Amino acid sequence: MVAATTRQQIVQAADTLFYERGFEATSFADIAVVVGLSRGNFYYHFKTKDEILHAVIAYRLSNIQAMLEAWEVGAKTPIDRIRSFIQILILNQAKIMAYGCPVGTLCNELAKRDHIAKNRAVELFTLFRDWLSCQFTALGHGTQADELAMHILMRSQGVAALATAFRDEAFIRREVDDICLWLAVQRPNLSDNPESVSIQNS
């Protein structure tokens, strides 16, 4: 039980450091310091940094899956569920402005290095893609559901990248408002005045 707890602490610390510093820039020693482990105790749980990376990706996949399931329970309509995804940009804006999107930054770093785990990291995006596609299918966009899901992912990643560059909260809120207006237009049988749709960012 103690070993399992320690392993989880290592994974959580590595997850944070990989996000804030990058995978390559984070050392075993950096993670060990955060957790408070000696080198020997650390190697008992993980022999290589790649092992930690795979555990971090699995940890993120699990967290994303839990979040998606919570949105399914907490939101009544597909529009509301998709809006929950868009609102991540507001809820996490401080971290996004400081470090970028945790999924996008990891995928980009691993792709640049042609790392063996790059395809595994893409599964983080795929979880969102498949879930968003299901929501658009539920809205009646069967043939275009995946295209619309990719559009939402593209826009959110673009906002995250520019938010990191310019550190502009007002920009993030404007873009979230605009994405929500675009989403409202995707609703079947929407009135001719989509601007009347209520949008809340808090």
From TrEMBL:
Superkingdom: Bacteria
Transmembrane stretches, start-end: none
InterPro entries per record: Homeodomain-like_sf (IPR009057), HTH_TetR (IPR001647), Tet_transcr_reg_TetR-rel_C_sf (IPR036271), YxaF_TetR_C (IPR054156)
Gene Ontology MF, one: DNA binding
Signal peptide stretch: none
Keywords: DNA-binding, Transcription, Transcription regulation
DNA-binding region, residue intervals: 27-46
Domain HTH tetR-type stretches: 4-64
PANTHER family: HTH-TYPE TRANSCRIPTIONAL REGULATOR YJDC (PTHR47506:SF1), TRANSCRIPTIONAL REGULATORY PROTEIN (PTHR47506)
Name of the protein in question: TetR family transcriptional regulator
